[in-house]
Design goal:
9 strands, elongated, 19% helix, alpha+beta
């Protein structure tokens, strides 16, 4: 008649197949659920990191100060006057490092605390008048503690852009060394000046998820107006890479 009647064997096979399909779907759903739960965990919670990079500032030349000093002690002696010659150099780049830790409230907002050492910047100058040689060197060290709010914009599951803004409590030490012939040198030891204060910090960067819990950052930051009227105020920019671990 063309009509097939299912046998007991075919019915049992169909039932076994349905059970296998249901079991497979259940396992897949559980796996996806656990993966989503782990992803949600990594979207919130604490993290720690370490970074290193290049710092740059506008370090002022100490040559004008040296010329003024030499004019005071030698009268009219100055660069290219009366046989006096001058030379100077400024090192306005250095190596900086930072340690940081934070807490992610969600994929978009975090708070972060950090310690940053922005490196040492220097300036030196020399004036030679006849047989007398005068030189001066100045070094600036900047470091401190800070806190920022970080806002993130995910581009994918692994890549996100972020911006940050906050405050940096800095300490600055300026060391000046003057070398002069006997009888002229008023600074037998380096002259040190210290200053401290609080300034804004802000930055932009990109973060890449590498593997479970670990990520890499590349960012640029500006530490604004570090110093006072005695030591001079300069911005310090830091271009760095960092590795972080999310707990």
């Amino acid at each position: 008649s063309g009509i097939s009647i299912p046998t007991a064997t075919s019915t049992m096979e169909d039932t076994a197949m349905n059970k296998a399909q249901i079991f497979g779907i259940t396992i897949l759903a559980l796996g996806l659920g656990l993966s989503s739960a782990r992803a949600a965990e990594l979207d919130t919670g604490p993290y720690l990191g370490i970074g290193v990079g290049q710092t740059k500032t506008k370090m002022a030349s100490v040559l004008p100060a040296l010329r003024a000093y030499v004019r005071t002690v030698l009268g009219g002696a100055d660069c290219d006057v009366g046989g006096a010659t001058c030379s100077s150099a400024v090192q306005d780049t250095s190596t900086g490092m930072k340690l940081f830790g934070g807490y992610r409230f969600n994929r978009h907002v975090s708070v972060e605390g950090f310690y940053a050492d922005l490196g040492t910047f220097s300036s030196d100058a020399t004036l030679i008048s006849g047989s007398e040689r005068f030189s001066v060197a100045a070094d600036k060290d900047r470091r401190g503690l800070g806190a920022v709010v970080v806002g993130a914009w995910p581009l994918s599951d692994k890549v996100s852009l972020f911006g940050k803004a906050g405050l940096f409590r800095w300490d600055l030490e300026l060391t000046t060394r003057l070398t002069a012939p006997p009888g002229y040198d008023p600074f037998s030891t380096p002259e040190r000046q210290s200053a401290s204060g609080t300034s804004p910090i802000y930055g932009l960067g990109v973060q890449f998820a590498v593997f479970q819990g670990f990520a890499l950052r590349a960012e640029v930051e500006r530490y604004s107006k570090i110093g006072n009227n005695n030591t001079g105020k300069q911005d310090v920019d830091m271009l760095s890479v960092a590795v972080l671990y999310k707990f």
